Backbone:
């Protein structure tokens, strides 16, 4: 039996296994030696350049290999065939779902160092991982995050599951290093686009559905977030994901499809408003934000006229200035020069402004 113990971070912002290894190198070495003494051919994967590599290798004293590898990747190290490629000196490319290759076992560092009923996981924004029950609830994750206006909980790869915060009692199998709780000001289209960008970066290109599917999904959501989204593209994505879920060669494409379906099913209405109403309901997507000059505060000084390189502001002395939304590129240069604080950035709710410059009333 070949056993690979992976201390590679699935997420750069959530290096749980590496954190636990650094916390107790001696304890990790002792458990790896136990596996080797039981007759297993054991190797440990650690990010290249980490100072802990030399200490771990010294404690193992040749009874198990310590292999340094590229830390810029993440999801692939949750696949046993990809990790086996690293041991052979090759690129980490998955060739089959984890657990389906005889004589090969992948053991996550968190699994090696944690307890059976508990799991260390990293909540978005935290400085360190927290230990929680492997079987928990949506409410418990929300409370642990400290987010008071939660609307969704995302349990990262390899779970790839999205839960609506309102389903507080829903059971959660905590199998990921990373958890993010989205608040009321989080745009779910933007959140999904960020998640899909990671999958696209990790896609190996060995299967059409995994590689082309991740590309199509990411481009579709990027278009939605940049004001180029179309109903037909999202409808195509809804048709594509169920096929990806069954036809992708490894779990990465399958989980990406399941994650996308979860977002579309749980927050499809919010995502679709980006192209049906041309608004970002959470006011997070920059392309949907606009700048406006408030008539009640504008003194007609002309400072914003001089600052705008796109000539998108109309006005003259003692007239309320107006921003031409068709010409504005949302650079924000006008905001920084307005001493009256008359220029505001708006999302779905726009302030009332005149269509053209008007004389300033006596105040």
Residues:
């Amino acid at each position: 039996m070949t056993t690979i113990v992976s201390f590679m971070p699935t997420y750069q912002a959530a290096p749980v296994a590496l954190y636990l290894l650094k916390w107790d190198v001696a304890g990790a070495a002792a458990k790896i030696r136990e596996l080797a003494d039981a007759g297993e051919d054991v190797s440990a994967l650690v990010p290249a350049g980490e100072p802990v590599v030399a200490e771990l290798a010294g404690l193992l004293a040749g009874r198990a290999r310590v292999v340094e590898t590229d830390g810029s990747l993440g999801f692939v190290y949750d696949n046993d065939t990809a990790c086996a490629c690293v041991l052979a000196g090759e690129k980490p490319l998955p060739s089959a779902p984890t657990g389906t290759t005889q004589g090969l076992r992948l053991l996550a560092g968190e699994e090696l160092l944690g307890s059976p009923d508990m799991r260390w996981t990293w909540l978005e924004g935290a400085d360190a991982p927290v230990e929680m029950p492997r079987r928990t609830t949506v409410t418990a994750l929300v409370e642990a995050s400290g987010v008071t206006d939660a609307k969704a909980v995302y349990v990262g790869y390899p779970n790839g599951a999205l839960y609506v915060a309102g389903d507080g009692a829903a059971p959660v199998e905590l199998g990921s290093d990373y958890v993010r709780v989205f608040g009321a000001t989080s745009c779910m289209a933007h959140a999904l686009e960020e998640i899909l960008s990671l999958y696209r970066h990790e896609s190996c290109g060995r299967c059409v559905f995994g590689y082309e599917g991740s590309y199509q999904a990411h481009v579709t959501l990027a278009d939605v977030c940049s004001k180029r989204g179309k109903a037909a593209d999202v409808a195509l994505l809804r048709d594509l994901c169920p096929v990806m879920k069954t036809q992708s060669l490894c779990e990465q494409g399958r989980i990406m499809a399941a994650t996308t379906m979860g977002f579309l099913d749980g927050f499809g209405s919010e995502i679709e408003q980006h192209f049906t109403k041309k608004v970002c309901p959470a006011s997070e997507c920059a392309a949907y934000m606009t700048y406006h000059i408030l008539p009640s505060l504008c003194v007609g000084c002309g400072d914003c006229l001089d600052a705008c390189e796109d000539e998108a502001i109309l006005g003259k002395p003692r007239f309320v200035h107006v921003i031409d939304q068709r010409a504005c590129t949302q650079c924000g240069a006008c905001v920084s020069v307005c001493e009256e604080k008359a220029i505001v950035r708006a999302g779905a709710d726009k302030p009332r402004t005149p269509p053209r410059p008007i004389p300033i009333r006596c105040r």
In short: The CA atoms of residues 140 and 219 lie 34 Å apart. The longest strand covers residues 41-47.
